[in-house]
Amino acid sequence: MTMSASLLVRWRRFALALTLPALLGGCGFQPLYGTPGYSQIAGVEIDTGSSRLDYLVADALEEEFGAGRSPYRLTVNSSSRESAVGVAANAAVTRYELSVSVRYSLERNGQVIVTDSAREILYFPAPSNPYGLIAARRTAEEQAAAALARRVSRAVALALREEAGEPGS
Description:
The structure is a single chain. The protein is of the alpha+beta class and 169 residues long. The two termini are 41 Å apart. A four-stranded mixed β-sheet has the order 1-2-3-4, with helices on one face. It folds into two domains: 1-29; 31-163, 2-Layer Sandwich (Double Stranded RNA Binding Domain). α3 crosses α4 (130-163). 19% of the residues are buried. The chain has four helices and four strands; from the N terminus they run ααβαβββα. Pfam families: LptE.
């Protein structure tokens, strides 16, 4: 690349960096972080069941929400379904599908603000040894719980933002 072409590329990047924020603001884009909805999410009380999956989802949600005090309560019910999707010629299962679902409800002083559900589907290998299968299943559950927590936390933040009177995106 020649010196003038390099300068032209730099100039275009600089111009784009200057105009992009104005264009995004003009189309109504607003980041979710830093808004009233996201600041109220810290410390939301989480109520779940007592299964291992419930614990994983609650733990991932607490990590997403962070510490703090909040008048909100999030009730989460999780369930999972596992099915064999890969079968070898000798009828041995080689791959599993794990479908994890959560139903959640956000309340403030007994008033429901939002109720919804989310689902995550993961696939994991079926090693021939039993411990390998247990480890693969647990890893898939942890990944699904983390992914669902991200989705639920964003939905909750959006609901809190709308409750605060700001339009959603």
